[in-house]
Amino acid sequence: MEKYFLHQIKHNAANDQWDKGIVIKDTEDAAHQGFHAYLGAYAFGNNADTDYVQVEITDAWGNRVDFRVWEARTPEGVA
């Protein structure tokens, strides 16, 4: 059976903590559902404390199936 790996990374601006993990999915559809659910929960201003989200789907051979970064951090030194 094919496996897909959902890589999830987010940054909490309130406490400067990074959260990351990999979720194993049995189908590409399930991986895409998780991909969009994670983005919907944390990216695009949907979570006030989150200022960075990266989500990636890879297959069991290491091929990148999908990838997205949402970035709302301000570079250091820029007001």
What would your notes on this structure say?
By secondary structure, the protein is of the alpha+beta class. It has one domain. Helix content is 19%, strand content 46%. The chain contains 1 helix and 4 strands. Strands 2-1-3-4 form a 4-stranded antiparallel beta sheet, with helices on one face. Strand 1 and strand 2 form a beta hairpin. It starts with a strand and ends in an 8-residue tail after the last strand. The model has no long low-confidence stretch (mean pLDDT 93).
How much of the sequence is in beta strands? over 45%
Order of helices and strands: EEHEE
Q: Characterize the biggest β-sheet.
A: 4 strands, antiparallel
Helix content: 10-25%
What is the topology, as strand order, of the major beta sheet? 2-1-3-4
Structural class: alpha+beta
Give the overall silhouette: elongated
Q: Give unreliable regions as ranges.
A: none
- Report the count of strand segments: 4
Summed over residues and divided by their number, the pLDDT gives a mean of: 93
Calculate Rg over CA atoms. 14 Å
Number of helices: 1
Tally of individual domains: 1
Task: State the end-to-end distance.
Answer: 50 Å
